[in-house]
Amino acid sequence: MRSLSRLPTLFGKEWRELTASRAYWLLLMAVGPLVGHGFINAVALYAEASGVGGGPAALPQGLTPLDGMLAPTFGAYDLAVTLLFPFVAIRLIAAEKESGALKLALQMPFGAGEMVAAKTMALVAGWLFAWLPGLIAVVMWKTYGGHLYVPETLNLLLGHWLRMLLSGGLAIAAAALAESAASAAIVTLGFTIGTWALDFIAAGRGGWLAELAAYTPAAALRFFERGLLRLSVVIVTLALALAGFAVAAVWLHTGRKFGARLLRVAVLLSLVAVVVWIGSLARASWDLSENRRNSFPQADEAALRQIREPMRVTINLAAEDPRLMDYERGVLNKLRRVLPRLEVVYAAQSRTGLFEGAEERYGEIWYELGGRKAMNRSTTEPIVLEQLYQLAGIAVPAPSDEPVFPGYPLAAHPKGARLVFYALWPLAVISAWWLARHRRR
Amino acid sequence: MSGLIGPHSLPLAALTRRLTMALLTVNGLFKHFGARAVLRDVSFGVRQGEVLGLIGPNGAGKTTLFECLAGILPNDGGEISANGQRLVLTRRKTALFYLPDGVTPWAQQSVDWAIGFFERLYAAPVKATELIDILKLESLRRARIGSLSKGERKRLTLALGLLTPQPLLMLDEPFDGLDLRQTRDVMALLRRQAAGGRTLMLSIHQLVDAARVCDRLILLNDGGVAGEGTIDELRAQANLNDGRLPEAGLEEIFLALT
Q1: Which of A62, A181, A195, B219 makes an SS bond possible with A216, Cβ 3.0 to 4.6 Å?
Q2: Which of A17, A106, A108 lies nearest to residue B106, judging by beta carbons?
Q3: pLDDT beyond 70 at A209
């Protein structure tokens, strides 16, 4: 309890260390123009699609602020979290290791756990300031007359927050484990590149690799960018991020023998693996997008929920076949949300389907339910749903009268955005840095 | 304990009794780095209220011994006890504080902040203003720690160490980087701390300084204790009282024992 009462003092120290780091100020400085670039391009493209200047407008239903403005604007944070933020996090540990301050810190009246917790709190608080350009972009969008749907906006922010936490956890763990900041940076970037490679390979292979790739930082973020809140993604990302911080806390206890620390880390990682596995089984998800892009129409969902038996879908399509991608996006992702006992089998033998295409079964999608089987080659939603109703013996529901998503065209110019993001923001950051530097004295 | 206490504040009997009580006992301590034994069967006692010097040639294991005692490094064998009870790793930080040599903690922060941080953290028993005055840190208060010279940094870290409340303070090379006058001032300060009840263990490579400030000495050589005691006791251990060098100083003793 005494150490908890000292946590504010410790947090104050970590906050000062964070704001004393040039890497942090460079991150803040870079985030403004990066977000600004994304925002300005997004608003301009949105305006073009909305028929600015008398040009042809796209169908209004296709114009959603989530895809058109929020995802590309906040996408800049993904870049910053991947390439800049780890260096800020690594410094919090590596600088103390290299300067000898860690030897003093380890003797202070709190454990390594509290020390890492205070560093994490400082990182999170520091990241809140990095969000300012994104929030400015949102406010500017509103001043242009743009529409925002709060649940999908908050969901996107949650996704980016989890992404930051994961990156921070990994970087802090790497900094604790590695001898130097450079080694920690290599480990962190190596992990990121590894997840990119996994994403790339999984896209061409499907199967369990694709299941695993759903939890890479980039893939996890895509769910939030589509307006989907998946419990499994939240649990897995949070567990991995916290595992990083916990590993750091265990490893920084340098007074314990190497073997003892290794054992503790192994036990901890085993526990995390169990949590991740259980978390990945969680099927709960919420479609927070305004246009309900991740859901079937409500009447269809109600009808499908009548299916209690386990359903198996066997797909004879190669992972790189665009029909499979359509099917995943348009049918399977929605079906997984409605049918918790859905099993999907990817039966294709090759990545491309080039040589399987000539086979008789290639392209077939088999549905099995309660001993009954049916085959259909279609990957489009209404046809698949009709097939499922027929197989389950459920009457096709009458079309529901739910309101149709109207779409939100906005033919606005990103007025003032260049000035704000390319000039005022960097100036504000430089001024804040100068003030912080002089207040430290 | 409030403020710095003068050297003659305790009655002689109480001082004598305190000096013979073992505050810390180290028994059979071993430490290896890979196949290399850095500490071998190190045993000694630290008496309450004394200034104990740790001397030895480079690579003797002085810093490693300090880091093992402080719980920064794990020891491979042996036992450390305080007041007769085994001092487990989690209790080390309540019993002792170790101030490493050559550190530049929180280089971007100011001297004032570092002192204030330790003051807040420990509810320091010693007034920081007195330490700032004695260690001549007043003019450096607004300076960035990273910009300090070696001696200035040493004075700052000494102040930080003296702000901690643990009964035993271990200082690695406390006079390294200090000029003659500063060395004398710091010696006097450390003596006053010891007289006030705090136990000090100092690793010193300048034997003249060690002889001047320490009550007792431990001579560490090649990872083992080559001698322990007052200068007279060490002289006897080195068999220099047999008429060869009856007035032998610490240097001769050091050479004879290592």
Answers
A1: A195
A2: A17
A3: yes
Q: Do A100 and B102 touch (CB under 8 A)?
A: yes
Q: Is residue B32 part of a domain?
A: yes
* Whole-number average pLDDT of chain A: 90
Give the Cα-Cα-Cα angle B196, B199, B204 (nearest 5 degrees). Answer: 120
Chain A residue with the nearest C-alpha to that of B31: A257
Sequential pLDDT tens for chain B (258 residues): 333 333 444 455 554 554 456 889 999 999 999 899 999 999 999 999 999 999 998 889 999 999 999 999 999 999 999 988 899 998 999 999 999 999 999 999 999 999 999 998 887 667 889 899 999 999 999 999 999 999 999 999 999 999 999 999 999 999 998 999 999 999 999 999 999 989 999 999 888 888 899 999 999 999 999 999 998 888 888 776 665 555 667 778 878 777
- A436–chain B Cβ distance below 8 A for any pair: no
- Half-sphere CA count of A65, side-chain side, radius 13 A: 21
Q: What is the pLDDT of residues A140-187, one digit of tens each?
A: 999 999 999 999 999 999 999 999 999 999 999 999 999 999 999 999
Across the beta sheet with A365-369, the strand order is: A342-346, A311-315, A365-369, A372-376
Tokens of A196: 């990119």
Q: Which chain A residues touch B116 with a CB distance below 8 Å?
A: none
Range(s) of the domain holding residue B105: 12-109+168-257
Q: What is the pLDDT of residues A305-324, one digit of tens each?
A: 999 889 999 999 887 788 98
CATH number, domain containing residue B206: 3.40.50.300
Does residue A358 contact residue A352 with C-beta atoms inside 8 Å?
A: no
Within a domain: residue B71? Answer: yes
Q: How far apart are CA B40 and CA B61, in angstroms?
A: 9
Those residues with Cβ within 8 angstroms of residue B184's Cβ, 6 or more apart along the chain or in another chain: none
In this predicted structure, the answer to whether residue A417 has a pLDDT above a threshold of 70 is yes
How many other CB atoms are there within 10 angstroms of residue A401's CB atom? Answer: 8
| ipTM score | 0.88
3.40.1170.60, 3.30.870.10, 3.40.50.1000, 3.40.30.10: CATH of A298-392: 3.40.30.10
Which class for A343: exposed (0-12), middle (13-18), buried (19 or more C-beta within 10 A)? exposed
Q: For residue B37, is it within any domain?
A: yes
Using a CB-CB cut-off of 8 Å, the residues of chain B touching A5 are none
Amino acid identity, residue A371? G
pLDDT of residue A355: 62
Q: Rounded to the nearest 5 degrees, what angle is found at the Cα of B148, between the Cα atoms of B145 and B150? A: 120
> Would you call B229 exposed, middle or buried from its count of C-beta atoms within 10 A (0-12, 13-18, 19+)?
middle
Q: How far, in Å, CA of A170 to CA of A244, rounded?
A: 5
Distance of CA A144 to the CA centre of its chain: 28
Burial of B116 (0-12, 13-18, 19+ CB in 10 A): middle
d(CA A39, CA B3): 60
Structure tokens at B68: 């093992």
**Would B247 be classed as within a structural domain?**
yes
* pLDDT tens figures, A363-401: 899 999 988 999 999 999 999 999 999 999 988 888 877
CB pair distance less than 8 Å for B121 and A6: yes
Sign of the dihedral defined by the CA atoms of residues B69, B30, A180, A270, in that order: negative
Domain ranges of chain A: 2-288+414-440, 298-392
The closest CB to that of A103, out of B89, B103, B144, belongs to: B103
Residue A7, pLDDT score: 83
